[in-house]
């Protein structure tokens, strides 16, 4: 029971809906919390099953663990279907990153339950002759809380503001070409659309701190995640039939800088810069060329 409680608590602590509206409430909460309880129960009974030599139970637990691996595929399929309803798509890289996170959270739930169950059992075996079983429960609780705290810190993704400098850029046109500062974004053919960009558009320039960050910004999935999160937080003045107002993040091939042009519902640059800075660095875009000897030599 101690393992089950702290395993379920671990999953509940990681279950929250923010601007991304996923998981949804209440149906998304119910399904994810239900699966988390299953994972917690699995982790909680591993040790008793092995000690009692219940090999059938142990085999069943392995089967449950295998099923938890299917969570990533389930989340990926759900998010892929939701992409059709998004004005600004998440992109394949962001979808895969979210799916990985949901899978990892179930494993963390299992580990928290296993740690709490194990410490409770060992404490009970050691302290039972002394008549103090309460301390075994406290030991299990401490183990569960430690795993939850460490796991949440480990699974937290690095925000973009830690790897790049984010500042305002100026929207300007050179003929029909839309630029943010000196970085080309797209061609806008209609004069009416160009006027709208000039009056309501905001520009953001993202300057990488080093070559690792430059490689991250070069990833198309990372740049699509920036556009999606910015539109989700700030709102977007576009519809399905106005593709020229879709926020785009383009790369300056000479310097490695990236620039985004967007027409938000709330035309306030300070919250927009904060929104871009809070975009997570997705796992598929995280590269470290500076960790290699050739990469360091090339950077010099």
Note the main attributes of this structure.
300 residues, alpha+beta, 7 strands, 57% helix
Could you walk me through the main structural features you see in this protein, from its secondary elements to its overall organization?
57% of the residues lie in helices and 12% in strands. The protein has helices spanning 2-13, 27-44, 46-51, 55-68, 71-83, 92-127, 133-155, 191-200, 211-218, 220-234, 269-277, 293-299, and strands at residues 164-169, 171-174, 177-180, 183-187, 202-208, 248-251, 258-262. The strands form two sheets. Strands 1-5-7-6 form a four-stranded antiparallel beta sheet. Helix 1 packs parallel to helix 7 and helix 2 crosses helix 6 (92-127). It is elongated. The N and C termini lie far apart (57 Å).
**Which overall shape is indicated by the principal axes computed on the Cα atoms?**
elongated
Low-confidence stretches: none
Class based on secondary structure composition and strand pairing = alpha+beta
Instruction: Kindly state the percentage of residues in helix.
Output: 55-70%
Number of domains: 2
Q: Overall mean pLDDT score? A: 84
Number of helices: 12
What does the oligomeric state look like here?
single chain
Rg is 24 Å
Give me the strand/helix succession.
Answer: HHHHHHHEEEEHEHHEEHH
Q: How many strands? A: 7
Instruction: Describe the main β-sheet briefly.
Output: 4 strands, antiparallel
Distance between the termini: 57 Å
Strand content: 5-15%
User: Largest sheet, order of strands side by side?
Assistant: 1-5-7-6
